[in-house]
Design a protein that fits this description.
By secondary structure, the chain is of the alpha+beta class. The chain folds into two domains: about 5-40, no CATH class; about 45-135, 2-Layer Sandwich (GMP Synthetase, Chain A, domain 3). About 35% of the residues lie in helices and about 35% in strands. A hairpin with a 6-residue loop joins strand 1 (about 5-10) and strand 2 (about 15-20).
């Protein structure tokens, strides 16, 4: 399976701007710029998209792992924070909480740790991946 996205950039790194489009068109010429990336301007940025991808990938992997163990989650909720330092994402921190009937806290943690280590986005990152389970 292959997925594609594209970026268009016009102008210099600091004064220019661009847009991002995904194969599905969920992002369709979505704006991004220096201000949206390094300040708090309108638009998205690559780090925000990495965080969204990591949260989504991890959560789906956790759901599959729980299902394989005989548990059906009522809900799983994950937030992800990536930390950009000196031009590199150095950490990706996941915070997960879930409502999973008949699943002990220990079993939930075991499957969450497995998902953290083995979801495709975790595997692709060179950054440290950390996680906590929220109550």
């Amino acid at each position: 399976m292959k997925r594609t996205s594209s970026a268009v950039w016009n102008g210099s790194g600091k004064e220019g701007s661009g847009n991002l489009t995904t194969q599905s068109n969920t992002l369709n010429k979505t704006p991004y710029s220096y201000v949206s990336r390094f300040e708090n301007g309108a638009g998205t940025n690559p780090e925000e998209l990495v965080a969204a991808a990591h949260a989504g990938c991890f959560t789906m992997k956790l759901s599959f792992l729980l299902g394989a163990a005989g548990f059906t989650p009522t809900s799983l909720e994950t937030s992800c924070t990536v930390d950009l330092e000196n031009g590199a994402i150095v950490t990706s921190h996941l915070v997960v909480k879930g409502v999973v009937p008949n699943c002990s806290a220990e079993d939930f943690k075991k499957h969450a740790e497995d998902a953290k280590a083995n979801c495709p986005i975790s595997k692709s990152l060179t950054a440290a991946v950390t996680m906590e389970i929220a109550s």
